[in-house]
């Protein structure tokens, strides 16, 4: 082990890993250590309040510092609600909307239409916009 470093980073939490990665990308000699026998500190896994958006600045930093090879990403399988003593999956497709016990008939039809609109929407095809400018309408206007 070398004895001279430009920077010593203690801890392997998410902030420390980002800092270590950014410093090493800038050409500094970094010693990165943790007193624990596991990697990740308080950030060994992310909960829903810490969820990273796929194109957010945190993800860009992780990719830039190349620490993504030490992380595992998993897509969210779905959203669920607890209602009247049971857990139900929140519909995410037109087929799920029609089968969902969470909505009445009219809500199911409206949800199905919304999912089809989203699925068929093409940024470069104004015909798929159905006359709506998504940069100007509110979510309420879009759903109605």
UniProtKB/TrEMBL annotation:
A GO term, aspect molecular function: Rab GDP-dissociation inhibitor activity
Coiled coil spans: none
InterPro entries to which the protein is assigned, alphabetical: FAD/NAD-bd_sf (IPR036188), GDP_dissociation_inhibitor (IPR018203)
Name of a matching Pfam family: GDI
GO cellular component: cytoplasm
Membership in a protein family: Belongs to the Rab GDI family.
Protein name stated in the entry: GDP dissociation inhibitor
Source taxonomy: Eukaryota, Viridiplantae, Streptophyta, Embryophyta, Tracheophyta
């Amino acid at each position: 082990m070398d004895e001279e470093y430009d920077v010593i980073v203690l801890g392997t939490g998410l902030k420390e890993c980002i800092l270590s990665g950014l410093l090493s990308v800038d050409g500094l000699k970094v010693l990165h250590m943790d007193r624990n026998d596991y990697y990740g500190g308080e950030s060994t896994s992310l909960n829903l309040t810490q969820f990273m958006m796929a194109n957010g600045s945190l993800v860009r930093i992780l990719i830039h510092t190349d620490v993504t090879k030490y992380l595992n990403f998993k897509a969210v399988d779905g959203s669920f609600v607890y209602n009247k003593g049971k857990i139900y999956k929140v519909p995410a497709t037109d087929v799920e909307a029609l089968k969902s016990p969470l909505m009445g008939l009219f809500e199911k039809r409206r949800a199905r239409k919304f999912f089809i609109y989203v699925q068929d929407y093409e940024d470069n095809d104004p015909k798929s916009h159905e006359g709506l400018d998504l940069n100007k309408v509110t979510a309420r206007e879009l759903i109605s």
